[in-house]
Design a protein that fits this description.
The protein is built from 2 helices and 6 strands. The protein has about 90 residues and is of the alpha+beta class.
Length: about 90
């Protein structure tokens, strides 16, 4: 099954490692925000960031080899992924 990230981008559910909120790059806790920004910049400089957002990026999805930015909130993406996973388990 696939998770739709917005626009014309979808990724396989089994490839997802993490789904997070882009606001975590702007947290009050400077140390945590720095780590997140450093990770994203390292991935971006390696050409491994795919921007699937149609407007402002609200969430990010981490796979083994890429980071996808999405304009869909992380809560909505997690809910969709859980529903898809639940459908697969019931089959």
């Amino acid at each position: 099954m696939f998770l739709h990230l917005g626009g014309d981008r979808a990724i396989a559910i089994e490839d997802i490692i993490s789904i997070g909120e882009c606001s975590s790059f702007r947290l009050n806790s400077a140390k945590k925000a720095d780590i997140n920004r450093e990770f994203l910049e390292k991935m971006r400089s390696s050409g491994k960031v795919i921007d699937a957002s149609e407007k402002e990026s609200k969430s990010f999805v981490v796979t083994a080899d890429k980071v996808y930015l999405s304009s869909i909130s992380s809560i909505t993406l997690k809910r969709r992924a859980a529903m898809i996973f639940d459908i697969d388990v019931k089959k």
